[in-house]
Amino acid sequence: MRRRQFLAATGTAAAVGLSGCLAELGRLYTSNEPPVVRNRPNEAYVPTHVEGMKMVGTADAGDYRVGLFYSYPHRFWVMDDEDGDYATSKTAVEPGDDVHLMASVWDPETGTTVPDTGLSVELSRDDELVSEEVIYAMLSQRMGFHYGANFGLGGDGTYEVRVNVGATSLNRFGELAGRFESPASATLDFEFTERDRDDIPYTMLDDKKGDPGAVKPMEMEMVPLGRAPETLPGDRLGSGMASGLRLVGTAISEPRFGEDTYLAISAQTPYNRLVVPRMGLSATVSGGGLVRFDDRLEPGLDPELGFHYGATVPSLSADDTVEVLVDTPPQVARHEGYETAFLEFDTTRLT
């Protein structure tokens, strides 16, 4: 596969394509993916390169809105579980892979990203099925949470992409209550040429690759990024770090959460506040010599909080001690830069 890369001749960079996609100025050449960094840290790190992407389009699917994008096919890592010992394993680009398709799902009324729906894609051309598969829930530094996989196509042409979105089991609050309870589908036309794909910016990060940190997420006007609020509503309970994840707690007393105070924990990536779903989280709340709560937190979705983990806790106050334990690491595939992070956790006290 031919890839266009711009090597820095002047040390400057220019924005190209979608906002946030960078292409280095200089000589044009082609290459495969660079080798994975050796001795990667067990935390989020700067990847070897970043890629731009092109938008296929957006469409409504029942209560959802779906955005579809593509870029070069690339490696990613999936979760492995051997008797509770979690690790990631690399999925390499295979011969015949032409694109990496990515889909985002959100609520069009509030702009809230809706993770954990399950999603499948059917690709057809001239009424003939080209490919059909359930695609991975993923986390990347550029897009945050999304769904994605590598696909082979049948050359240049127009493809019909049917995106099937499942119902969500998340607890929903406020304007989101009662929504997303049924599966839905959307169909988009995908005009593909190798030339258009090979014009997507592809930037090497030789000076920073492997360093602890993260690249900036893309900013797209039409598509919300799954990002936690800078300040959570309610009374702050503190924050803490767990295996590179930032856990932020708040206590909210609002009718939409019920009669008792609601404990919400926002799990975020450490640098850009990207929400991290598909975890098993539990908490212990104590105060005044009593344990007020010691149980699992349920994943939830709220227009003000966004995605979070929560439970009602009677008499919860900002003076209570809150300890959070990640029982199950995020069960999401990871793009480069996250594959060594968020795997081993100790109990974290919010301060």
TrEMBL record:
The record's InterPro entries line, in alphabetical order, gives: DUF7350, Metal-bd_Tp34-typ, Tp34-type_sf
Return the PROSITE patterns for the record.
PROKAR_LIPOPROTEIN
Q: Which residues form the DUF7350 domain?
A: 231-351
Write the record's keywords in alphabetical order, separated by commas. Signal
Q: What is this protein called?
A: Tat pathway signal protein
